[in-house]
Amino acid sequence: MRLLILGCAWLMVGIGVIGIFLPVLPTTPFMILAAALFARSSPRFEQWLLDHPRFGQPLIDWRREGAISQKAKIASVSLMAVSYGIVLFFGPPQHWLKLVIGLILVACAAFVLTRPAPGH
After folding, report:
1. What does the alpha-carbon distance between residue 94 and residue 100 come to, in Å, rounded to a whole number?
2. Residue 1, exposed/middle/buried by CB under 10 A (0-12, 13-18, 19+)?
3. Which residues, at least 6 apart from 99, have a Cβ–Cβ distance to it below 8 Å?
4. Model confidence pLDDT, tens digit, residues 98-112
């Protein structure tokens, strides 16, 4: 079971890394999940992720306070808006589907925006 959890953790890291380059795929939720899975399967890799220069501090902020930095909020909501623009102009022709996607993105943006900033 430990190896399965470890494999899932690395899969989440991989998806998170891909999300760095794809604006429609978020990175942080996958890294949060990877850290949680590493905590159950490999404390060494969990610590590696928490010490990582790019991913570590956001993960620590999330664990301690459920917090998202202002910079991350701006990036996240901006990329959601860009993604929705792509859906509007190049997405499926069904208006109901575009509306559903828009509602999901609004709900995600609301969640992100209502998280506290680190240290508050």
Report:
1. 10
2. exposed
3. none
4. 999 999 999 999 999
Which amino acid, 17?
V
Q: For the whole model, what pTM was predicted?
A: 0.77
Q: In sequence order, which ranges of 23-94 are alpha helices (DSSP H)?
A: 28-41, 43-51, 56-65, 70-90
> What whole-number distance in Å separates Cα of residue 38 and Cα of residue 2?
10
- Crossing angle of helices 28-41 and 56-65, rounded to 10°: 80
User: Residue 38: CB partners within 8 Å, gap ≥ 6?
Assistant: 6, 9, 45, 46, 49
**Which amino acid makes up residue 6?**
L
Q: Please write the tens of the pLDDT for every residue from 64-90.
A: 999 999 988 998 899 889 989 999 999
CB 12 within 8 A of CB 31: yes
Q: For residues 7 and 27, give the distance between their C-alpha atoms in angstroms, rounded to a whole number.
A: 18
| CA atoms of 50 and 93, how far apart (whole Å) | 43
Residues in the chain: 120
